[in-house]
Amino acid sequence: MLTYWIPDEPCMLPGTATHQIRVGGFVINDNKEVLVVKEKKCPSRCHGIWKLPTRFINKSEEIFSGAVREIKEETG
Predict the structure, then answer these.
(1) What H or E segment, with its residue span, contains residue 46?
(2) Where are the alpha helices (DSSP H) in the chain?
(3) How many domains does the chain have?
(4) Residue 4 forms part of a structural domain
(5) With contact defined as beta carbons under 8 Å apart, do 21 and 59 qualify?
(6) Rounded Cα distance, 71 and 37, in Å
(7) Would 15 be classed as within a structural domain?
(8) Which terminal residue of the chain, N or C, has fewer Cβ atoms less than 10 Å from its own Cβ?
(9) pLDDT at residue number 16
(10) Does 1 reside within a domain?
(11) Where in the sequence is the domain holding 36, given as residue range(s)?
């Protein structure tokens, strides 16, 4: 698998990686409004688009826990 790590953080991909797991959250409040975030860390093709909070889970992290963590990280 060819990769190029864009973020400033150290690359989280193991050298033998063939797949990555992403998680996301679909959050609706009592007023039936959907939580979306504006993309900032993306190449020009998707910079500034509105999207659901998504990201990669950490090694050995449970999928549900990773989704909750990512929602919190992306929404402050």
Answers:
(1) none
(2) 63-75
(3) 1
(4) no
(5) no
(6) 10
(7) no
(8) C
(9) 72
(10) no
(11) 22-75
